[in-house]
Every structure is written in C-alpha cells, then in structure tokens.
C-alpha cells in the first residue's frame, strides 16, 4: 500500500482485523437461532382464555404471540391489522389487559431480519392504521439493540453504536406516526423509553412516560418499564427508583410490587452474581413487596445456578403463570429442564420460546445443548425398545435443528426399528393408510432398495385422508426429490412448513436456492 511502511502496514492490518471482528459480531447477533415455521395463523382474536380474573389480579387471558406472528408471516395483513386493533380496544376497555399490546408488540417487533420486508409490506397494506407502524417501530428499536450488543459503552465499538443510532432513526417516525393515529396506544411509550435510555436522553424518557400516563392513568406495565430506566446503569439511582415507586403506591396500594424493583435490580448487578445468598435475600425482599413475574424469573435463575432445580422449576412455573406470553419465561424453564435432563419438556419450551423470539442470545446458547440432549435421550429410548418415544424426541430435535446430520441419522435408525408386533412388517405393504408410522417405515424400507415409485402411492393415500399432516408432506417431498420432480418436492416442503415443520421450511429454502442457481 503506497506510503505505508512496515509498521504502518501492520497497524492498518490490525485495524482492518478489528473492524472485521466488530462487523462479524454485529452480523452474528442479527442472525436468528432458527427460522421457525409460521404455524397456523389466528382465526379470531389471538388471546388465550380472554375472560375471568383470579383473586382481583389481572385477567388470565394472554396474547397468543405465535398465532399473531403467524399472521405476519402468512401476509394476512388485513387480519393482522384487525387483530392488533382488537388488542388495543381490549386494553382501552380494561387497562388490566395492557399486557396484550405490550407482549404482542414484543413478538411482532422481535428484530428478525425477515420481518423487515414483511413489516414494510404491512405498512403499505394498512397505511391508515396505527398497528403496522408501532410494530415496525418496535422492530427497529430491537434491531438497534441487537446491533449495539449488551456490553457497557466503554466496551462497545463505534460501529455498534452507529448501527444502533441508524436503526433508532428508522424507528422514530413510525412510533410518532403510530401515536398520532392512535393517541391511546400507550405501548408506543415502551420503545421510546428504551431508545431514550440507550441514547442518554432523560427528557425524552420523561415525555414518553407523561404522555402514556395521561392517556392511561391506571396502566401498570409502562410504570415497570420506566422504573427499569431509573436504574443506576441508565444514569439513575436506587433512591430515584424507590422514590418513584413510593409515589405510585401511596395512592394505589395494589402497585406495591413496584417497591421491589430496586432490590431486583441490585440482584441483577454484575458484582453480586456469584453471591447466591445475597441474590436470594434481595429477590426474597423484592417478592415481599409483590408477586411480579420478573422477580420470580430472576429467583428461578438464581436457584438454577445454585443447583436447587426443583425449587427453580416451581419458581419459573409461577413466572409462566404470571406472564405466559413472554418468551423469556420459557427460555428459563428450558434451562432448568435441561439441567434436570428432562430433554423432551426442555425442547418443547425452547421451541415455543424461539417461535416468539428467535433472536434471543440465550436461546442461541441453549439450542445445541438441548438438541444433543434430545439425541441422547432418543438413543436411550431406542435401546429400551421405546421406538415411538425415540421418534418423537428426534422429531423435536429436527424442529430445533433443521437439517442436522446427527438427527437425520438417528431418525433413520429409529424408523427402521421394528414396529410393534400387531403392525405391518417392513416386508409387506401397510394395510392402514392412516398409520403414519407404518407408512413411514415402509417408505424407508423401499427407499433403501431405491423403489421410490412404489412409495409415492403410500403417501398419496395417507395425505388424501390426512391433508394437514406436516410430517407426511415432509416425507413425501423426499420421494418426489428422488424421482427428480423438484416442483412437487418444493410444493410438499412448503406445505410441511405451512403446517409447522421447521425442517420443511429449511429444505424449501435450500431447494429454491439450488433451483435459482440452475437457471
């Protein structure tokens, strides 16, 4: 390079390497753990058990984030707009339903890369509704946090901060537009407060809170968000947290749990993370102020680290009951179940959490551990002659790690294992076209002899009777592929994806790339 001596060239190379490392970190944080199948879209208001209360607490109903997100992925924009507007109307009718919008936006705005185009198209489809704007604004705030990372400012590269600021700049017009179209959509305040914290703008934080509490004086979720923003890590103090909580509870005793936030934050403070006794004391004190889901979740994590797994499971179950629409409670329960070597339930919780938030860094760490545990548990089940249990564990592993070669090998071995004595043998055609396992085993037996033309009628008959069986479409796609009918193979993979088979989605994308290169 002209003008650079040996030392200058070495510095240039070092800087280039550091820049590449930063870009790689940013890219890795924005890569989803997996791209889950969308699942069935909501056919009505996506709220589970939307009626009733328990001992004066908030209604038991919670938003079905997976169904809500499925509407976005399936591009059912009119239905999605109506669903979000209904969630907003439900909150306005009863502010105790505030979490419907909070949790719904957390799922729709989780920062997944594929969401960018979908949200843009939703805005185009419903330009006069607040719904797509708040979702897209929340999405860009989440993207900003993913770009920045979670380290302290002094340990964060300028490129990470610049990426965050650029994402926030894209979020702000959408959030302002959402609030102008629907002034009572106080969920807008949540991403605004998060942005204000990250940008060091306390005035913007105060404005967001003031507007939200003016529109909904009895809403609670936004007070919790604001309390988090008063923590020392954001330039606040525990004194400020306690003062704000005290001011709220003087007139509303039912908000007593707010007084536990300063102790909860102390328990989260990094210097005390290795001091289990101190953390336990702080979280016990926080919970004495009120039974709040984040306090339960933190205590579950502390008990898990201490090895008290039964107690941890009891705590996290309480957290799930208090806030069943949050991915974080299922991620933590999956960690506890993993530590307990309860691989099936751990996998189910992890999959459910990833369907809501596939960008979670904890989920990224957890996924390979749970997949290996499922494979091990399946191998043990096979040794014990429990073929069906082994197959179910391996199918779950395939959902969590689409295309994993170990899962594929073990699944083939499990399928080839003998069926119960009453079922058809490998050597004879199945006599029940409704027996998925029988058809599957016959498929694998014929495939070993490359008799693919004989397999196709078996799956055709099964799917004629079971037209929504995702795994059957996935299996038939392999037959079409071996018969060199790539169009039919792709169609079946897309149907498998539509009916919730993650591996169908993954292989459909692979096949589309292969076809694109061949053109």
Instruction: Look at the structure and give the CATH class of the domain at 34-52 and 60-229.
Output: Mainly Alpha
CATH evolutionary superfamily of the domain at 34-52 and 60-229 = Tetratricopeptide repeat domain
- The span between the termini is 41 Å
Number of strands: 2
What's the shape? globular
How many helix segments?
Answer: 25
Structural class of the helix and strand makeup? mainly alpha
Helix fraction bin: 55-70%
Say what the CATH topology of the domain at 34-52 and 60-229 is: Serine Threonine Protein Phosphatase 5, Tetratricopeptide repeat
Summarize model confidence as the mean pLDDT. 90
How are strands sequenced across the largest beta sheet?
Answer: 1-2
Per CATH, which architecture of the domain at 34-52 and 60-229? Alpha Horseshoe
Q: Could you explain the architecture of this structure?
A:
The structure is a single chain. With 519 residues, the protein is mainly α. Among the domains are: 34-52 and 60-229, Serine Threonine Protein Phosphatase 5, Tetratricopeptide repeat (Alpha Horseshoe), CATH 1.25.40.10; 436-518, Serine Threonine Protein Phosphatase 5, Tetratricopeptide repeat (Alpha Horseshoe), CATH 1.25.40.10. Helix content is 69%, strand content 1%. The protein has 25 helices and 2 strands. The chain has helices at residues 6-29, 65-73, 77-93, 98-108, 115-125, 130-148, 158-181, 189-199, 202-215, 221-229, 238-251, 261-268, 276-289, 293-305, 309-322, 327-339, 343-356, 361-383, 387-400, 405-416, 436-448, 452-465, 470-482, 486-498, 502-518, and strands at 47-48, 62-63. Strands 1-2 form a two-stranded antiparallel sheet. Helix 9 (202-215) packs antiparallel against helix 10 (221-229), helix 16 (327-339) packs across helix 18 and helix 17 (343-356) runs parallel beside helix 19. The radius of gyration is 26 Å and the shape is globular. The relative contact order is 0.07.
């Amino acid at each position: 390079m002209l003008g650079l001596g040996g030392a200058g060239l070495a510095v240039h190379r070092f800087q280039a390497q550091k820049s590449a490392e930063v870009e790689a970190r940013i890219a890795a944080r924005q890569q989803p753990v997996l791209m889950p199948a969308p699942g069935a879209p909501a056919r009505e208001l996506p709220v589970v058990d939307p009626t009733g209360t328990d001992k004066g607490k908030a209604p038991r109903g919670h938003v079905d984030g997976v169904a809500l997100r499925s509407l976005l992925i399936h591009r059912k924009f009119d239905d999605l707009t109506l669903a979000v507007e209904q969630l907003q109307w439900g909150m306005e009718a009863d502010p105790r339903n505030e979490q419907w919008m909070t949790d719904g936006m957390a799922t729709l705005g989780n920062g997944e890369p594929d969401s960018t185009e979908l949200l843009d198209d939703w805005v185009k489809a419903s330009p006069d509704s607040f719904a797509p704007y708040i979702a897209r604004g929340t999405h860009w705030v989440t993207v900003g946090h993913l770009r920045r990372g979670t380290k302290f400012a002094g340990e964060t590269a300028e490129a990470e901060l610049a990426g965050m600021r650029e994402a926030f700049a894209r979020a702000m017009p959408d959030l302002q537009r959402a609030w102008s179209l629907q002034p009572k959509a106080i969920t807008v305040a949540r991403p605004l407060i998060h942005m204000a914290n990250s940008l060091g703008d306390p005035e913007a934080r105060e404005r967001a809170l003031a507007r939200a509490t003016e529109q909904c004086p009895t809403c609670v979720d936004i007070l919790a968000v604001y309390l988090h923003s008063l923590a020392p890590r954001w330039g606040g103090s525990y004194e400020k947290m306690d003062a704000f909580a005290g001011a709220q509870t003087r007139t509303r005793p039912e908000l007593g749990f707010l007084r536990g936030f300063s102790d909860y934050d102390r328990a989260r403070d990094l210097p005390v993370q290795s001091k289990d006794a101190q953390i336990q004391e702080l979280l016990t004190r926080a919970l004495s102020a009120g039974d709040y889901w984040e306090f339960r979740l933190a205590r579950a994590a502390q008990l898990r680290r201490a090895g008290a797994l039964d107690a941890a499971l009891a705590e996290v179950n309480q957290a799930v009951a208090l806030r069943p629409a949050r991915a974080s409670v299922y991620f933590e329960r999956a960690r506890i179940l993993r530590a307990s070597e309860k691989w099936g339930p751990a996998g189910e919780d992890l999959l459910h959490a990833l369907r809501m938030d596939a960008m979670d860094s904890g989920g990224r760490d957890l996924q390979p551990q749970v997949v290996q545990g499922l494979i091990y548990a399946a191998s043990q089940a096979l040794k014990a002659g429990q073929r069906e249990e082994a197959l179910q564990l391996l199918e779950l592993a395939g959902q969590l790690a689409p295309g994993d070669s170990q899962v594929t090998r073990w699944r083939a071995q499990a399928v080839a294992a003998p069926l119960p004595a009453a079922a058809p043998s490998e050597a004879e055609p199945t006599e029940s076209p409704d027996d998925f396992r029988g058809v599957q085993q016959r498929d694998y037996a014929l495939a070993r002899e490359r008799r693919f033309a004989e397999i196709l009628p078996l799956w055709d008959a099964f799917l004629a009777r079971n037209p929504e069986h995702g795994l059957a479409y996935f299996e038939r796609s392999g037959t079409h592929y071996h018969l060199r009918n790539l169009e039919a193979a792709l169609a079946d993979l897309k149907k498998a994806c539509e009916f919730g088979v993650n591996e169908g989605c993954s292989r459909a994308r692979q096949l589309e790339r292969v076809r694109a290169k061949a053109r």
